[in-house]
UniProtKB/TrEMBL annotation:
<dbReference type="Pfam" id="PF01687">
    <property type="entry name" value="Flavokinase"/>
</dbReference>
<comment type="similarity">
    <text>Belongs to the ribF family.</text>
</comment>
<keyword id="KW-0547">Nucleotide-binding</keyword>
<dbReference type="GO" id="GO:0003919">
    <property type="term" value="F:FMN adenylyltransferase activity"/>
</dbReference>
<dbReference type="InterPro" id="IPR023468">
    <property type="entry name" value="Riboflavin_kinase"/>
</dbReference>
<keyword id="KW-0511">Multifunctional enzyme</keyword>
<dbReference type="InterPro" id="IPR015864">
    <property type="entry name" value="FAD_synthase"/>
</dbReference>
<dbReference type="Pfam" id="PF06574">
    <property type="entry name" value="FAD_syn"/>
</dbReference>
<feature type="domain" description="Riboflavin kinase">
    <location>
        <begin position="184"/>
        <end position="308"/>
    </location>
</feature>
<keyword id="KW-0288">FMN</keyword>
<dbReference type="InterPro" id="IPR002606">
    <property type="entry name" value="Riboflavin_kinase_bac"/>
</dbReference>
<keyword id="KW-0274">FAD</keyword>
<protein>
    <recommendedName>
        <fullName>Riboflavin biosynthesis protein</fullName>
        <ecNumber>2.7.1.26</ecNumber>
        <ecNumber>2.7.7.2</ecNumber>
    </recommendedName>
</protein>
<dbReference type="GO" id="GO:0008531">
    <property type="term" value="F:riboflavin kinase activity"/>
</dbReference>
<comment type="pathway">
    <text>Cofactor biosynthesis; FAD biosynthesis; FAD from FMN: step 1/1.</text>
</comment>
<keyword id="KW-0418">Kinase</keyword>
<comment type="pathway">
    <text>Cofactor biosynthesis; FMN biosynthesis; FMN from riboflavin (ATP route): step 1/1.</text>
</comment>
Length: 312
């Protein structure tokens, strides 16, 4: 992440009056459509000497709310990806009752105008805002003279006539179609968490696996075996990740476990990032542990061949 970024937490009364070109949206996944919008915002900011900024919502931190939703990117991921693209100012706020009750006009006047000195807004064509999502691109047009801003609407990015969306990428990931999801994301899908204890069985099979507890409600890819790239203590390693409930063994639960190639360190408790490169096969129930080990050896050979051919 760039280290000169500025984050203004509006809930803590922070404001910033530098004139801004603000990108508005939910931006889950920051897929190639979102990237197009951000590039537009950066371009306009450069031309008009405005600060390129993005308004983002904090995650739902209320644990009492049963939130079964899953997402492609956490707030931290978004800030990292956007700052790598050149964005340097982030305005964050909670999507709470107070915020939700603002009318479209109040959102524009209280937040965009008074708190952020917005001179330019860049949005997607389906953007909605304000109470009951009543505000849209027409509402922005109606208020732009009064509050002194201009608007640019960026059209959807499509693939074969189909709109690229966070929802469709989540479906691809849940169906194991990592290649297409990565294409639409414009980078490899990744999840972050820390390493927790498992049954200590992996080492007895000669395939120790670091079990991941995710630090966010990421969309979990379909059960199966993936070629992955894992970042541990700042260093990348190729790996095989198995997602599933180990059907060869009875009474297990669904987990995300990773066998790191050419690696033998104890990493319990460490934060790791898993980047999904390719889907290899589904999760299988084997007749014997030896059959499972044979298959894992085959997976490993395929991983090494693929890495040599495509990733080195
Ligand atoms: C490359 C790879 C492929 C795997 N494929 C399967 C599989 O198809 N079926 C299965 O039951 N377990 C599979 N496993 C999971 C093993 O059963 C699991 O790693 C082992 O039970 C160790 O569990 P532990 O980490 O809780 O000790 C796979 C593991 C790896 C690393
Ligand atoms: N190549 C490796 N890949 C993954 N984890 C490894 C590797 N080498 C050593 N380890 C360590 O071993 C642990 C996994 O061993 P395992 O027997 O599968 O135990 P557990 O069931 O607790 O996951 C990892 O959490 C990590 O600390």
């Amino acid at each position: 992440m760039k280290n000169n970024i500025k984050i203004y937490d509006l809930d803590r009364g922070m404001t910033d009056f530098e004139p801004k070109a603000i990108a508005l949206g939910n931006f889950d996944g920051i897929h190639i459509g979102h990237q197009k919008l951000i590039k537009k915002d950066l371009e306009i900011a450069r031309q008009l000497n405005l600060v390129p900024s993005v308004l983002l919502f904090k995650e739902n931190s209320k644990k009492t709310l049963i939130d079964e939703k899953d997402y492609l990117t956490s707030l931290n991921d978004k800030i990292e990806i956007f700052s790598n693209m050149g964005m340097d100012t982030f305005c964050i706020l909670e999507f709470n009752e107070d915020f939700r009750s603002l009318s479209p006009r109040e959102f524009i006047s209280e937040i965009l105008y008074k708190k952020l000195n917005t001179k330019y807004i860049v949005i997607g064509e389906d953007y909605h805002f304000g109470k009951n999502a009543e505000g849209d691109i027409k509402t922005l047009a109606r208020f732009q003279d009064e509050f002194g801003f201009e608007t640019t609407i960026v059209d959807f990015e499509v693939d074969n006539g189909v709109k690229i969306s966070s929802g469709s990428i989540k479906e691809l990931i849940k169906n194991g179609n990592i290649a297409k999801a990565n294409k639409y994301l414009g980078r490899n899908y990744k999840i972050i968490g820390h390493v927790v204890d498992g049954h200590k069985r992996g080492r007895t099979l000669n395939f120790p696996t670091a079990n991941l507890e995710m630090n966010f409600s990421y969309t979990v890819p379909k059960d199966g075996v993936y070629l992955t790239r894992v970042n541990v203590r700042g260093k990348n390693h190729f790996a095989l990740t198995n997602i599933g409930s180990n059907p060869t063994f009875e009474n297990d639960f669904r987990k995300i476990e990773t066998y790191i190639l050419d690696f033998s360190e104890d990493i319990y408790g460490e934060n790791i990032t898993i980047e999904f490169l390719e889907f290899f096969r589904g999760d299988l129930k084997f007749e014997s542990v030896d059959d499972l080990i044979n298959q894992m050896e085959i997976d490993k050979k395929r991983a090494i061949d693929t890495i040599n051919k495509k990733y080195l």
